[in-house]
Amino acid sequence: MEIVSLNPSNGMAVGKVGVTALDDVSSLVDVGIEAQARWGRMRVDERISLLTKGFYAVEQSADELAKLLSLEMGKDIRRSMGEVMGCAQGGQYLAAEVKEAIQSEKLPGGVTVEYCPHGVVGVISPWNYPLAMANNLIVPALVSGNTVVFKPSEETPLIAQDYVKILNQFLPEGVLQIIYGGKDVGVALVESNVSMIAFTGSMAAGKDIMRRASGSVKRLIMELGGNDPMIVLDDSVVEAAARFAVASSFENAGQMCTSTERVYVDEKIADVFEERVVEIARQYKIGPWDMPTVNIGPIINEKQRDKVIAHIQDAVEKGAKLRLGGEDHPDHFIRPTVITETPPDALMESEETFGPVVSISRFERVEEAIQRANGTEYGLGAVVFGSESRAREVGRRLIAGMVGINGGPGAGHAPWVGAKQSGFGYHGSIAGHRQFTQLRVLG
Ligand code: NAD
Predict the structure, then answer these.
(1) Does any ligand 1 atom lie closer than 6 A to the CB of residue 136?
(2) Residue ID of nearest Cα to ligand 1 atom 3
(3) 144, 233, 267, 281: which could join 386 in a potential S-S bond, CB 3.0 to 4.6 Å?
(4) Does residue 127 have its Cβ closer than 6 Å to ligand 1?
């Protein structure tokens, strides 16, 4: 069986890979277990040195990798180049940070806390940032002495394949293996002898993984979906808030876990805010990865595109006003869309839309906005615009792992973390890196 990877801008084949046979998954994990015995005993500096050589080679191949990433996933070439270089250069920084995190610690009384590898980590990743999301989990797993069996998304197997090929010119055999397929191959990995699953993807898949992993109490890191709210207080800099609302809703064609999905604006400034949002959004251009002026690429596949259109239609049927786009979309794309007066019972209030849509509702009292912002199962990111002190005060009342004040949520060196059903465990930061290790208290 094969996966034919399609260019989401035109549906043309980019290339293909063979699907890993389900029976082979556990033998590959066994290879990883054997390799881990040697890899885990290496000095951490040696592991980092091999990875660094790999990252240098990735950098040398950045042009070809970025083009393949664009062809397969659809984002424009500048963004793809940023993602490739971010993995190569950010990966080196990340590796050094992990080294610091896993140093043994001597406690008073002669007891030592050691950070030991788990064994084999199954890394399962999505298609929206096909390299970055995988790299963020693969690097801490490998540096802390685990080996990895990596299952990329079935939408983006080719870029993952090339990336792994480059790193494997430097890593010992069995340290980083790749398997291909959809859900069933992911399930086989979860049910294999891996010690840990580090997963980034949807909430539904995350729940299934938790259930299956419970049989042998596998360690888990789950970075799941979001439905991020943005609250715009009446003392916001309206221009900055409007620009952020559009940029964050449209980033990566809206296919970003922390993209803004719901905007709540104080009615006192709503007229001018909404007008600016529409004017700014109107300037965004849809198109394929190599169109020089493109801001919004294609939607990854037909199913996802149908979902975005269904969410727009649902909101309008329930009384929302369509202020821009929203209908007559060309094949493979969604026009930049702005909706106002989105009612609380619209699907996009409670579910992740994952498309280039700014959805705005007004509020009279901040309490209402906080209640609506917190009223979903999700809790990944959130954003508040307003005067620093008021925005912080409101931000502290939002149930989200990462709350951005007058800017996007999350920071490079901080934990990347979801609250409620948007995550379980987390990566990033000293505490996040340590989740890739088993603590041993010695003495
Ligand atoms: P998805 O859950 O459909 O698939 C993700 C990966 O999991 C794929 O490799 C898929 O084959 C595999 N998979 C699916 N079901 C599985 C199962 N039951 N067991 C094992 N593996 C399984 O998600 P997607 O459509 O690829 O990605 C988009 C989703 O990812 C969105 O919900 C987005 O918010 C989320 N995401 C979250 C973050 C974060 O940091 N929190 C980052 C990026 C994307």
Answers:
(1) no
(2) 202
(3) 233
(4) yes
- Three-class SS state of 21: coil
Residues designated as active site: 223, 257
The structure tokens 């398997």 sit at: 179
Continuous segment of H or E residues that includes residue 439: strand 437-442
pTM greater than 0.70: yes
Query: What is the set of domains in the chain, with CATH numbers?
Result: 2-224+420-442 (3.40.605.10), 228-411 (3.40.309.10)
- Alpha-carbon torsion, ordered 247, 248, 250, 252, to 10 deg: 110
Q: If you take atom 12 of ligand 1, which residue's CA is the nearest one?
A: 183
Instruction: Tell me the backbone φ, ψ of residue 383, rounded to 5 degrees.
Output: -140, 140
Query: In this structure, what token pair is assigned to residue 342?
Result: 């989105």
Q: Among 18, 3, 25, 22, which Cα is nearest to 122's? A: 25
Q: Mind listing the pLDDT tens digit for each residue in 203-217?
A: 999 999 999 999 999
CA–CA gap between residue 111 and residue 259 (Å, rounded): 45
Q: Is the CB of 360 under 6 A from ligand 1?
A: no
pLDDT band at 327 (very low <50, low <70, confident <90, very high): confident
2 SS3 class: strand
pLDDT classification of 328: cutoffs 50, 70, 90: confident
Instruction: Give 137 Cα–ligand 1 centroid separation in angstroms.
Output: 14
Cα angle 126, 414, 167; round to 5: 50
Other C-beta atoms within 10 Å of 186: how many? 25
Mean pLDDT computed over 169-176: 98
What confidence score (pLDDT) does residue 369 get?
Answer: 98
